[in-house]
Amino acid sequence: MKSPTLFRYGAVALLVGTIAVGCNATDSSQPSNLKSVSVTQIVEHPSLNAVRDGLKEELVLAGFDPDKTLNWQWESAQGNPPTATQIAQKFVGESPNVIVAISTPSAQSAAQASKQTPVIFSAVTDPINAKLVTQLEKPGGLITGVRDFAPADKHLDLIAKLVPKAKRVGVIYNAGESNSVSIVNFVKQSAPARKMTVVEATVSNSAEVATAAKSLVGRADVIYVPTDNTIVSALNSVLQVGIKNKLPVFSGDNESVEKGAIASLGFNYKDIGKQTGKMVVRVLKGEKPGEISVESPSQVELVVNPKAAQQMGVKIPDAMLKEAVKVVK
Amino acid sequence: MNIVALSGAIELGLLYGLVALGVYLSFRVLDFPDLTADGSFPLGGAVAATLIVKGVSPVLATMIAVCAGALSGICTASLNVKFKILNLLASILTMIALYSINLRIMGQPNVSLLGESTILTPLQGWLQALPSWLGTPLVMLVIVGLAKLLLDWFFKTEIGLAMRATGANPDMARAQGINTDRMILLGMGLSNGLIALAGALFAQVNGFADVTMGVGTIVFGLAAVIVGETILSKRGIFWATLAALLGSVLYRLVVAIALNTQVFGLQSQDLNLVTAVLVALALILPNYRKLRWRSSR
């Protein structure tokens, strides 16, 4: 009977030892005179990663080099909200100069955990609905940031310009993504003024996207894909339906145009990251986050894909080709 | 690891201890592999958060959330015992249905409770007197401790014993005049009520309910139960439920370590791997121990 008991105590001792080592390792290795920025992100995803990279680039430009003159930390919660709360608690305990939270759940976790540390959010679509701030101008408190609310009204104008007969706009989105729901609500508000109606098709995972796209054939004149992670990851199914049925597909983000949607007025997520970086630098230099207004991305870029347009039976006028920041070949 | 991260991990571990107790009840006591947890955890959060935002008192909102969770468990159990759907499949059906139901309840994928009054608000004055890292974990310890003791007591009552017999040997239980169907309905309701309570508390303590927050709940619960059993051997109900709680706290401590980039080069990206290794080890070690024991005899 002796050896199993010994074994068990051995396992416990090992675990306790590991935790103790974990405690010591960080506490002793933190140089105190450098500024520190800790970044929490809900999931690794091209747009969110671009935000992080832009943020880092801007900090380097301002003289805060993560390799030399700045304590830089980054953690991803791998899509799991409980992990996001643990990351937030870890950061708050280390009290860095600024916590940057990319995405809504990460920002909410940081906001709940932080008592003193400034929190700058980024790529949050609707910070008021998420109760991160109560007002966009001079929010007060410890929190401000950059929101990425896509200009869906301008997207409808773009659709009207390229497909004048489009009256029924089919929207495919995942009803489980808060960003998409906010944008689709905005599309529904903006549509009547443009004499358009919105036809919805919702999915809960990427396997359902093809079926949802097919369900729009005959019910809609164009398909609009908002900035929705689930749909964008299965975009090819939508594009195939568009080409087969001459149903023009528009998107809310520029990457999707490069993959084969007709046109978009989208954000450059790296620019959003840079804009966030500028805000972080202001806080590092002593400004209070509560006195910095929540910002929207300063510009949208027009990207068009003439080949995709031709496949779906749409002609892009020369004027628009000239106006575009990028024409996909 | 700093004190805030450490106390945060213990707090989350205790909170998820309710999930571990629920999974212990379904998985070990009733021998019912129940994936409803991935849906009933966010269900608890969704119901509590939505009601609190509408102005319902947090205590009442939490109680309604527990009832909703219990209903979801009863739904899974009915699919199994009344309609003879395989238990695992029945729970998967309820779980995917709950995804849509949770979205309907919240009306959006994420409901924020930042700045709203929660179940912790009445304790605010008392909490502020304590160091901030101590207060919430202490509240969790009291709630989870109470749940554990109530569960221990329940398992010693006549109904509790009948429930344990149902899981251990259904044929024998039926021969003794126990209505095993009713026991499964009750047990699954209880299990998912506990898990929904965890979801409701998570939303209130961490400031938001999100429709994705249930992902991996069942894997976590199983990990906690199995790891706990490896450390505390089974010596009756009191120790078994304690083991589940201990496993839950240990699991969160391991996550906290994995978040500590300086140790072993582990990062949050490695979390799923760490979980898998942890559970696999916990499953392998008891066998290894048995082998050693046999050979040493």
UniProtKB/TrEMBL annotation, chain A:
CDD domains: PBP1_ABC_unchar_transporter
A Pfam family of this chain: ABC_sub_bind
UniProt xrefs under InterPro entries: ABC_transpt-TYRBP-like, Peripla_BP_I
Keyword Repeat appears in the UniProt entry: no
This protein's UniProt keywords: Signal
NADP listed as a keyword: no
Signal sequence segment: 1-25
Protein name from the UniProt record: ABC transporter substrate-binding protein
Lineage, opening ranks: Bacteria, Bacillati, Cyanobacteriota, Cyanophyceae, Leptolyngbyales
Automatic annotation (TrEMBL), chain B:
Keyword Cell inner membrane tagged: no
Gene Ontology CC terms, in alphabetical order: plasma membrane
Listed InterPro entries: ABC_transp_permease
Topology of this chain in the membrane: Multi-pass membrane protein
CDD domains named in the record: TM_PBP1_branched-chain-AA_like
Transmembrane spans: 12-30, 86-106, 126-151, 184-205, 211-232, 237-259, 271-288
GO terms of molecular function: transmembrane transporter activity
Keyword match Transmembrane helix: yes
Protein name: ABC transporter permease
Compartment(s) where it occurs, according to its Swiss-Prot or TrEMBL record: Cell membrane
Keywords assigned by UniProt, alphabetized: Cell membrane, Membrane, Transmembrane, Transmembrane helix
